[in-house]
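Hey everyone, long-time lurker, first post.

I ran two proteins through the pipeline my lab uses and got sequence/structure pairs for each. Pasting them in order. The first:
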Amino acid sequence: MEGVKTAMKAKDAVTSTTLRAVLSEVYAADKAANDKVPSSTIATILRRAVVRRTEAAAKFTEASRQDLAKKELQETEILEKFLPALLSETDIDAALREVIGSLPAEAQSKKNLGQVFKLFYQRIDRSTVDSYLVKQRAELLLAQK
């Protein structure tokens, strides 16, 4: 909220518009949940907004619309300032090794990938990791067993 006020005072239209758009998504989530949404949900909303803008920039670049691609990338940079940092690959590996180690020996195979994810996400908040990276690392670690 403070970022919107600062952008409005500085008459920075791009920043204020971008932040207002994301805030409206947060308010809609609040309304749908009939309560304030947790910070992890807000981080998820921000990540989705960044992904949408990145994909839009790629499409605009393909269509030779560099002006619109530049605008989308600028909005992505603005939103990334508000995102919490993702866990590193080593932290993800450590948590996955712990989860895999807690499983019985017969359950340490690729067949039980769903169980590994379930236990992993009970320990680690989804908004702090890249789910694609978690999947890659889990498959790799299970293949090594």
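...and the second, right after it:
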Amino acid sequence: MEQDPRDRGPALFCPACPQPGVNLPADWKVCYDRDTIMRQYVIDGNFTAQHMKMNKPVLDVALSDGKGYMVAEVPYQSHLKQSLDSKEKGERYMNTDYSICNALGYHSESITKALVIYDVGCQWSINFRNRVKNSLSLLLPPALEIVPAVGKFHLAAHKLSCFPRYSLNFIKGAGHLDREILETLWAPFNKISPTARSMTQAHRQEVYDDHMRDSNWKKLVGMDKFFLFSWRGCKFMPNITVPSLLKKYKNSNKCLEEMNQAYEQLTAVLDPDKVARWESDALRAEADRGEALDIYLLKGDKSPTFQEVWLQLMKNPKSPSGNVGSVAWLAEGISIEDSHPMSTRQEVKISEKRQRLSSRIEKFHSNGQAFCKGLDIDGTFTPQDDPAFCGSDEEEHEDREFWDHDEGDWEAPEEEVEGLASELMSIWMPSANGAAKLTELGLHELLKEERELRIGQANDCLDQLRTDLGNKAMLY
């Protein structure tokens, strides 16, 4: 008997997702808590799947409008028109809102909790309920709690406060996955995007539906070992053996056992009162969410930077044994140490940089006589740090143009060969003489100021190292 397929009827739905009346027992509300059967949705945009405007859209004929994975055209266009006319805040989310509302209402009867993972879920979720309330085309299942989150790949680019509030690590029932599955699905899908770009709207929609259905079928077949179908009423109910899911389940149990052992060992050596308070705070944060999750933020003040230490030392009142201008002089010395140029192929520029650096070193040593109480600071010109590891970002950018045009071997200018290159000259700093000698000469304040500036310099290096390690973790 011929039947008219209902909306999204021919679409293949994930057999692992909880669906009342399909893959959940009749007493599922008693057997499982709401976190266990929480539905999870991942949202992402595809900016490669562009479409050319049709010359005669009235001639377009749809054969399966709204029957697959793509929404029906007429109600969708009506929603867009209403959203544009309303001029509401959050208008840029009109496509996302329509998509997620349709997904949340599909095969989700009586499910009262949904996890929505979106690259900008922190912003999207703020006024989502208000947009649904004020729209005639957006509907949500009754009593549905929506928990917004951000995928682990994109969360690293958000501000620090987003980490505890939208991290999947602090959402019960979310599991330990990155929730960036759409990023991997776009790769094969984008292979057909150039072909579909010039199709009619209906033809393009049907081609996309076919490829999405094919993708879901391959995942479904790859997930299952075999199907045993039994006839129950008017439905085929599959009893599925899923080796891949069973393997993950066994691995999860093994990891859970290891983590429980580590947790018990750590708990055994901690103050029981603190552990009880932490557990209470964690349960309260899990229930309240939002700002309550900020308890997971790392506590501690950020170490002062070199510039902040410099400013603070300038503001400090001078001691009787101190010298006016000593902080600026020390900061100049540290700056000279950090400005050693790298060996490049720009012969003229490197020569000019060496001359400027040499002049700075001479001026630095000359000014230092005023702070050193007769101590000889005529620097012994011995090699210091390897110049290959020195240099600034600005110099690197300046050198790139020359590298692109000159492939010959670089040779030092003749005037630099006779004497020691300026980047190899040592910079006389108070710490080079040792604390005992400086204290004997009454220069302990100078040493103290240099130490504070060095701490700021080290904090800058550590902060940059953390940033670079974070970038590397994102890339690899």
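Reply from user beta_strand_b:
Welcome! Quick read of the second one: The longest helix spans residues 444-475. The longest strand covers residues 226-232.
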